[in-house]
Amino acid sequence: MTVTNGKRKIRYAVVGLGWIAQEDVLPAFAHTENSQLVALFSGDPIKRQKLGKHYGVKTYSYEEYDNYLKSGEIDAVYIALPNHLHCDYTMRAAKAGVHVLCEKPMAVTEQECEEMIRACLENKVKLMIAYRLHFDKANMLAVEIVNSGKIGNPRIFNSVFSQQVVGDNVRLKEPISNGGGSVYDMGTYCINAARYLFQDEPIEVVALSASIGEKRFEKADEMTSALVRFPGERVAIFISSFGGAPVSTFQVVGTKGDLRMDSAYSYQDELKQQVTINDETQEQSFPAGDQFAAEIIYFSDCVILDKDPEPSGEEGLADVRIIRAINQSAQTGQAVQLGEFKRQHRPNSDQVIQCPESEHPEFVNAADPSGQS
C-alpha cells in the first residue's frame, strides 16, 4: 500500500492506559510519520504522571474527555478502554467531530455497533476498528493462497487461541453480558479470520462453554468452543480459552491441500506459514512487526485523503453479531440462526504495511492478561 507521509500529521489522544495501550499502542507512534501522539486519558493519576512525562504529552482524567474533544487540539482518538465503554466514548468523540480508531471487539451488542456507525456517519468522521491483522503480511498472504485455488475448495477452518488470564484481569471481571469472556476477547480473532479466509458470512452457530470451576471463572467463561456454518456447507470450528497455555494457530483444509498458521494472531512472535499440497509441504516464516503502527498509519492516511477505512464499523458489527450468537448458543444449548449480512469489502494484501517491531516498555500499574507486569 502507498502511504502518504506529507507534512500533515493526525493528532491522537489515546483513551485508556491499560496493558494493550502501554505495551503496543503508545510505542507505535514512533514508527509513524503521519501520526502524532498528543494526549493521554486515564483514571489513574500515577499512569497520567509517569506516562505523560515519558511520552512528553498532556494527560487528562476521563472527566475532562468531553471538554478536550472540543479543544481543537486533536483530530482522532484511539479507544483502548474495556469493551463495554467503546460505544459511549466513540459516540462522544463523533459528536465532537473527532475521528475514531476503536479497539476490537467494536462493542458489546449489535445495537451499540449500529449507534457508533450512525453517529460517525452523521457527524462526518472516520470510524475504524483496530483489526491489526488486516495489515499483516502473513495473514493477508494466507487469504491470497486460500482463494487462489491452490488448496482446492476451502472446506474447513479450525483454530485454537488460548492463554492464561489471572482472576483480577478486566477480561474476567466483566460478565459476558457486559463484554467479558473469551469469545469477545480472543474468539474475535478466530471469527474474523474465518470470515476473511472464506470471504463470506456465516449462517448458523452452535457452541458450548466448559470450565473446571475455578473462582476466577465465576463471571466469564474459561473456554468456549464454537462450530460456525458458512454458505456452501463450509464449517469453521474454534476454541477460545482463558485457562490454557498460550496457543495461537489456525488451519484451512481444502479439497487438495491445507494451509496452517502458527502464532497466527500474534504480534510478538515470528509467524509461521505451512502449505501442504499432494503431500509436499512448503514453509515460510514472517518476522514480528509493529502491527499497531501499521493500523495507525493506515487510519491517518484515510483521514488525510478522505478515504473510507477498512476495517470499518460494519466489519466490527459483523463479528459482534456472531459473538452474541455464539454466547447465546453456549448458554441455551441450542443452535442459533444468523440472518443475512452483506459485506462488500474484504481485507487483502494491498493493505499490508510493514513496520519494525517496537521495543516493549515498562508497565505503569498494568500487567498483561497472565499477570506479568
TrEMBL record:
Region of interest (Disordered), residue spans: 342-373
Gene Ontology molecular-function annotations: nucleotide binding
SUPFAM superfamilies named among the record's database cross-references: Glyceraldehyde-3-phosphate dehydrogenase-like, C-terminal domain, NAD(P)-binding Rossmann-fold domains
Transmembrane segments: none
Domain GFO/IDH/MocA-like oxidoreductase residues, every copy: 142-259
InterPro entries linked: Gfo/Idh/MocA-like_OxRdtase_N (IPR000683), Gfo/Idh/MocA_Oxidoreductases (IPR051450), GFO_IDH_MocA-like_dom (IPR055170), Glc-Fru_OxRdtase_bac (IPR008354), NAD(P)-bd_dom_sf (IPR036291)
Start and end residues of each Gfo/Idh/MocA-like oxidoreductase N-terminal domain: 10-131
Record's protein name: Gfo/Idh/MocA family oxidoreductase
The organism of origin for this protein: Brasilonema sennae CENA114
